[in-house]
Design brief:
- The chain is an alpha/beta fold.
- The chain folds into two domains: 190 residues, Isopropylmalate Dehydrogenase (3-Layer(aba) Sandwich), CATH 3.40.718.10; 159 residues, Isopropylmalate Dehydrogenase (3-Layer(aba) Sandwich), CATH 3.40.718.10.
- Helices cover 43% and strands 19% of the residues.
- It has 13 helices and twelve strands.
- β1, α1 and β2 form a beta-alpha-beta unit.
- Bound molecules: 3-isopropylmalic acid (IPM) and manganese (II) ion (MN).
- The site of 3-isopropylmalic acid has 3 residues, from α5.
- 3-isopropylmalic acid (IPM) binds next to α5.
């Protein structure tokens, strides 16, 4: 295959993990005889500093014309405590989602056996937890009508039928491929938008008789995720609920640095780690590159290159087993490895396989 990849390293630890992702992509392409080319583009605070826009038109065009986007992270603390800032790095991410029509965000929550002791949950609760959260990504409060003055402010949680139907279709597709259990998460006891979600899901459920569809209020789902994470197989929910629940889900595995995600929709799909830009760690070579590397696995799998994805997952597991790990998951007495060393180890594993 020919892969045209847009690479958006962004801010903070973004460039460091991006490099490891790209190197793994290159190694896998060499191994399997794919041709890969990269185009780098600006986004986030980096793009604000350089061209005054967190998602410049040129970046959009590079993404639009690529087969996939390998995204790292955006965000810079200099904007966080300034509520008057006119442009923010996060707007770049939202613009990218909207302009590329990335309405479906796929966030897997997996556990790694050798890291279970790092989970904030007791091992017996989290063992075997393996589910995916499908988060609607271009609607809801993030993009609904907003208002703010000094005395009043609101965000509108608007959803239309086509927006709900298309994300539920994605969720059913995943449920059919997995264990055929779909949990629709909403707040239908309070919110009109949720009642429409539930109504449409109830209409669609009979089209997927093999799938066991259940409904759960978001507060209950947040609780269930820590009480019994193995209950879930595929979860689908609206934008804001999905934002919150997937952060909760990401720590179950023991390190946020391990979970990748994919955003898909109308145009080029984007593959990125779930974690943010961790500005405090910038340049220190301590950030875990695994989520970024696993997002490359998701990229291959999206294009049905299953063996390629499998090899990356195997290499990642081998690095964990060999204790080639970044500091936050390293065991006492094992060697010291940084972002770069973990990435290089994985690249070598792939080359020698
Ligand atoms: C995420 C992030 C973003 C979101 C922010 C950075 C805008 O938290 O991808 O989950 O809220 O969607
Ligand atoms: Mn988030």
């Amino acid at each position: 295959m020919d892969f045209k990849i847009a690479v958006l390293p962004g801010d903070g630890i973004g460039p460091e993990i991006s490099k490891q992702g790209v190197d793994v992509m290159t190694a896998v392409c060499e191994k399997f005889g794919h041709n890969v080319t990269y185009k780098y583009a600006l986004c986030g605070a980096d793009a604000i500093d350089k061209v005054g826009n967190p998602f410049p038109q040129e970046t959009f065009e590079i993404c639009r014309d690529a087969d996939a986007v390998l995204f790292s992270a955006v965000g810079d603390p200099k904007f966080d405590n300034d509520p008057t800032a006119k442009v923010r790095p996060e707007q770049g991410l939202l613009a990218m989602r909207k302009q590329l029509g990335l309405f479906a965000n796929i966030r897997p929550v997996e556990t790694f056996k050798c890291l279970i002791h790092k989970s904030p949950l007791r091992a017996e609760l989290v063992e075997g937890a393996d589910f995916i959260c499908i988060r609607e990504l271009t609607g809801g409060m993030y993009f609904g009508e907003k208002y703010q003055d000094d005395d009043k402010a609101y965000d509108t949680n608007a959803y239309t039928r086509p927006e709900i139907e298309r994300i539920l279709k994605v969720a059913y597709k995943y449920a059919m491929k997995r264990n055929k259990h779909l949990t629709v998460v909403d707040k239908a006891n309070v919110l009109a938008s949720s009642r429409l979600w539930r109504k449409i899901a109830q209409e669609m459920a009979p089209n997927y008789p093999e799938v066991n569809t259940d409904f759960m209020y978001v507060d209950n789902a947040a609780m269930r995720m820590i009480q019994e994470p193995t209950f879930f197989d595929v979860m689908v929910t609206e934008n804001t609920f999905g934002d919150i629940l997937t952060d909760e889900g990401s720590v179950i595995s023991g390190s946020m640095g391990l979970l990748p995600s994919a955003s898909t929709g109308e145009s080029t799909p984007v593959f990125e780690p779930i974690h943010g830009s961790w500005p405090q760690a910038k340049g220190l070579n301590i950030a875990n590159p695994l989520a970024q590397i696993l997002s490359v696995a998701m990229l291959f799998e999206y294009f049905d290159c299953k063996e390629e994805g499998k090899l990356i997952r195997e290499a990642v597991n081998a690095s964990l087993d060999a204790n080639v790990r970044t500091p936050e998951i390293q065991v006492e007495g094992a060697g010291k490895y940084g972002t770069k060393e973990v990435g290089e180890w994985i690249v070598n594993y792939i080359k020698n396989k």
